Amino acid sequence: MPMSVIRAFSDSHLSGDVIRLTAGDPDFNTPEYIVEAAKKAMVSGETHYTSALGKLELREAIATKLKRDNGFEADPKSEIAVTNGATGALSLSLLAILNEGDQVLVPDPGWPNYEPMIFAAGGTPIRYPLRKSDEFLPRPEEVESLAGDKCKAIIVNSPSNPAGSVFSRELLEQFIEIARKKRLFLLSDEVYEKIIYDNMRHVSIASLEGADEVTLTINSFSKTYAMTGWRIGYVAGPKSVVGAVGALQSAINTCPSSISQAASLAALLGPQSIVDDMVADYARRRAKFIGDLREITGLWAPWPRGAFYALVDFSSISPSSSEMARRLITEARVAAVPGAVFGEQAEGHVRFSFASSMRELELAAKAIADMLKKCKQ
Ligand SMILES: Cc1ncc(COP(=O)(O)O)c(C=O)c1O
């Protein structure tokens, strides 16, 4: 089991004067009212084990949020499990649904952690392409043809990492049709649901007709509330799977941190305008960074519709994204993630996180432009 490549890449460049645009970790501090709730929980003795599914009060608040924001209902007593981030929700869900040798379709390019999680649960990942020529969206007929007899589930991620593509309602409906026809689960990773631009609307698969028995909705507090270190996420789905997730959690983790759960409850009950403020800031950084890159470097980068990554095409300079990322560090002092880490479809590209300060983004774009100028001389 290799170390997460993004983590390894981020950790190895912590020192020195490198501008790090590697990790998908918001640079905002967790909002004050959330931190205060955690302090209060510690002082008032909310420091014990909780139910393996997480505190009921938190599950109830998640159910209210799912109904209000995502348009579907989940019973907080039996259809929601609180986990250690979306990572916990995804890995426990995969452990719950997979038998040895089962296959899971994963997006290419996609978050690199999906594959090792599937291996750890005894399964085999099969990639479905999201091509640059299709604006990094999948072709449903191709997804269907890749879903053979051994296939058990499809992972869907919209808004997507690393391309920031947002799947339309029609596209998601086609995924539901495939899942129902082939008796598959849809694992809908919605961690970037709130980080969305250009008046695009996030659609939750579970809100669509015929989706409820086949869909596991995965989400977390990490990106929405700048809470990556608190490690709270959740899965909402059919009782049978959520029950198995609870049993696995009690065996593997006992429960997620009680203090982080108290903080997450405060996040859901508090003013949601802080989320809008952070997203407005990401939108400004997106405009600046991608605008600068396009203008001063002449490189091509799609306009991400969601998440906070710029997937920049360097293929005219080097076909190898690993080589390109290495050169960016040594020649421009900018650390970013090689596209190949996310799959074959992102080879030739490098992913930059723009969840960083405006100043750093400005310096990074300039350093890249200077480096390219030198290459041409
Ligand atoms: C698509 C995607 N899903 C899940 C996660 C993990 O989220 P969490 O911090 O909630 O485990 C990430 C983190 O980068 C991600 O990009």
Describe this protein's structure.
The mean pLDDT is about 95. This protein has 2 domains: about 130 residues, Aspartate Aminotransferase, domain 1 (Alpha-Beta Complex); about 240 residues, Aspartate Aminotransferase, domain 2, CATH 3.40.640. The N and C termini lie far apart (about 45 Å). Helix 3 runs parallel beside helix 9, helix 4 crosses helix 8 and helix 10 packs parallel to helix 12. Strand 4 and strand 5 form a beta hairpin. It has an 8-stranded mixed sheet, with helices on both faces. It is built from 12 helices and 13 strands. It is globular, with a radius of gyration of 20 Å. The chain is an alpha/beta fold and about 375 residues long. Pyridoxal-5'-phosphate binds next to helix 4. The site of pyridoxal-5'-phosphate has 13 residues, from helix 4.
Which tags fit this structure?
Aspartate Aminotransferase, domain 1; alpha/beta; eight-stranded mixed β-sheet; 2 domains; three-stranded antiparallel β-sheet; 13 strands; 15% strand; Aspartate Aminotransferase, domain 2; binds pyridoxal-5'-phosphate; 377 residues
